[in-house]
Specification:
Blueprint (H helix, E strand, L loop, with lengths): L2 H24 L4 H8 L25 H16 L4 H10 L6 H9 L19 H6 L3 H12 L6 H19 L6 H12 L7 H15 L2 H11 L6 H13 L4 H9 L8 H15 L3 H14 L3 H10 L5
Helix pairs in contact: 1-14, 1-15, 1-16, 3-4, 4-5, 7-8, 8-9, 8-12, 8-14, 10-12, 12-14, 13-14
Length: 316
């Protein structure tokens, strides 16, 4: 057993969920509104508050980003392999979650549905289980495309899912984040060169260039202004990847990320994807403490998921 890889997988899952939970707390508000609503800046998990909502959340509440990640993980674990039809059945049967694209799958009642549109980041939020269990990039590429097209068939969305999975694959299997952009470029060239023709790739290049050339304390505001936190793949995913690969402290990175100048957008997705990369690069015990609260609130075990996903490596 490769203990270091197992630890990395757990850290990536934990950081994804913590980023998601922090993003849920803050996703509707800018910095000023956060203080008005909660009475203070957010530095740890608190009960999410919405000005008008029929839902009552608890400390450690999460969104689809984590729930659908675990739905894919559950399918992989149950089948011991990637099974697109089974994931389709699970998505159709799950509680009403996700946006317009999952609704189309549910309305079709077809677990082998092929989406023909969709440019948002929904396909990218659930690729982590594939990224940590596939041992070669050809298989990862094929599986991510098959997974994505259950709900999102647009090139920008598929590209966002692939770039997210490639990035997660990279941090799991490498210790030098400074080579991440070269890895992404080489991988796209070899496995899915259509990405080079997308807006998302243009924005990934721009976001990484910003991250290399600005002070860390300025990074978040500049990315928000120049790239954005929007639900569309070409906005939220380049921002998440740039933060994930260009941060020095996991906890501080997520805290700075969630305190924004503007309200709206898809903060939980940016924070969860960035978190998954941060967790693969380094451990952070402050994040681990918050992860325990999420486990308690949602009755699942990050360690169990990490153990079972790790065991799927080498399974053909």
């Amino acid at each position: 057993m490769n203990d270091n890889m197992l630890i990395k997988i757990r850290n990536m899952i934990e950081h994804l969920a913590v980023g998601d939970a922090l993003g849920k707390i803050c996703s509707k508000y800018n910095r000023k509104e956060l203080i008005e609503i909660y009475g203070h800046e957010i530095t740890s998990l608190v009960k999410p508050i919405r000005r008008a909502s029929k839902y009552e959340w608890v400390e450690g509440s999460i969104t689809d980003d984590t729930i659908l990640t675990f739905l894919v993980a559950d399918s992989l674990i149950a089948n011991r392999r990637f099974n697109r039809r089974d994931i389709g059945l699970r998505l159709i049967a799950c509680d009403p979650r996700g946006g317009t694209q999952i609704a189309k799958l549910k309305e079709s009642h077809d677990p082998e549905y092929m989406a023909v549109d969709g440019e948002t980041n929904g396909a990218a939020i659930r690729v982590l289980p594939l990224a940590v269990t596939r041992e070669n990039l050809t298989e990862l590429t094929n599986n991510v495309i098959e997974l994505s097209t259950l709900t999102h068939g647009g090139l920008e969305s598929i590209s966002g899912a692939l770039l997210t999975a490639y990035s997660q694959f990279y941090v799991l299997n490498n210790s030098e984040e400074r080579y991440s952009f070269q890895f992404l470029t080489n991988t796209v060239y070899e496995h899915y060169p259509n990405i080079f023709n997308t807006i998302i790739w243009e924005n990934v290049c721009k976001a990484f260039d910003i991250a290399k050339n600005v002070n860390r304390n300025e990074l978040y505001d500049i990315l928000e202004k120049e790239i954005g936190y929007d639900k569309y793949s070409w906005s939220s995913i380049p921002t998440a990847l740039a933060i994930g690969f260009h941060s020095d402290n996991n906890y501080q990175s997520l805290i700075q990320l969630i305190h924004r100048n503007k309200s709206g957008g898809d903060l939980d997705t940016v924070a969860s994807i960035a978190g998954s990369l941060l967790g693969g690069i380094r451990a952070d015990y402050t994040i681990a403490d918050m992860a325990k609260k999420i486990e308690t609130a949602n009755s699942f075990s990050f360690q169990k998921y990490a153990d079972e996903l790790y065991c799927l490596r080498n399974v053909k």
